[in-house]
Amino acid sequence: MTALAAVIIGTYAAMTNLSGVVTFARDDLEFFFMEDSAGTSWHVGKCENAPRLEIGQHIAVTGKREISIKHRIAAKTIAPVENAKLALPAPREIAIRDIFADVLPYGESSLYGRTLTTEGLLRDINRRQASTQLLVGEDDKNIQFEIPIPLDEPLPEFLVLGATVRITGALAYTSIENVNEGLFARVENVELIPASKKAVALVKRAPFWTVERLATLMAWVMTILVAVFAWAMTLRRMVEKRTRELGESIRLRQRVKIEADAARRERLRLAADLHDGFQQYLAGATFRLKAAMNYLPEDAANCREQLEKVRDALQHTQNGLRTTLWAMNEESEGPESLLELFKFVARRLGHWDGIVEFRSTGEERKIARNFAGTLLLILQEAVGNAIKHGKASKVLVETDFREASLALRVVDDGCGFDPGAPSPNGHFGLASMRRRTSELGGEMSISSKPGRTLVAFTFPF
Length: 461
Description:
The structure is a single chain. Helices cover about 35% and strands about 30% of the residues. The protein is of the alpha+beta class. It folds into 4 domains: about 1-80, CATH 2.40.50.140; about 90-205, CATH 2.40.50.140; about 210-325, no CATH class; about 340-460, Histidine kinase-like ATPase, C-terminal domain (Heat Shock Protein 90). The strands form 4 sheets. The protein has a 5-stranded mixed beta barrel with strand order 1-2-3-5-4. Strand 2 and strand 3 form a beta hairpin. The radius of gyration is 38 Å and the shape is elongated. Residues about 1-15 and about 320-330 have low confidence and may be disordered.
């Protein structure tokens, strides 16, 4: 046995002469891979004054082979070969799980240095100073892939966690070996080394609804719910406090009647403001939530169930606000211009985006702030009805500044309705629009049929 070991060691240590084709090379690395005429892949350490190598180039190498089951040689000379007939082998198509099945646990030297092509899910991206390390996986197996893209250079836009990518590179792994004693350590750090930045390609883009984005959406929805209920409770206490104060201040029968009428008007105004203002924001949140659910993949049953519960909670909040709250005081923080105020509110209501269009004729004149606020609430109700109840895909809002009046028209392409039919219980949008129009001294008219509904207002100005 001692004599046999001596022969092996002497063979490995002896000068080795090779010729073959370069299968992997990079200028920034101190080694390259080549395949000889017998089809063996060799890991060659570059020598001093080594020529610049290119993949597919035919070369001759002399050097000492390392004592290892891997085919590794430290080059002493590297020279091009003229008129060589060896062809560049094509990359081997192999699944990630099959790579590990062949290599683990003690290494498969026939795969070492081979150019392989595989596909997997991009699970991690680690930017470094001079390179970018990707972790690409299949099932419970992950393989490293370090591409020469430095930290100050942008990544390709498709390199997003969750994308399916196709990678090509030379297989390498780390193992501690002692051929003299017949010891072979377990394989570690299995990786593919790419020849260039083009060695990674997109197979399938990452889905939009990642776990992180769904978690963010859920967090925002829950925040809105908490804010809604907190606001509702605050408004309820305010109304109850105001009602108690009114009751305590009543002494005479006549004053009781006056205060009762005033309280009734105030409750009607606050209820209408709540319906036309905050109710629209809740509707916007509901529309956003429904749109998000449409993007969920079919197998996201748990996420869909949780989002449906959030949607039901929002709907419950909307219904509860109609019956339990009596007060809401809305102040507009928008610009002074009426047209800019309308557009300002439209930008805040996400479900108006892409649906509502504004047009104006005549020369705009400055109007009182309370007048503009009331017009804004009328507009919110009219447009909200068109989108929510009429299922309109386009809503046109026209303002016409005339010499002695202001005309406001809201036209939509929805399903239409019967203006003379009684409003369902809990819905008083049309009644609140008529009341506000009357308070401003204006007139309101409605015409509706499938495909076109027109709500027109005229105010003295």
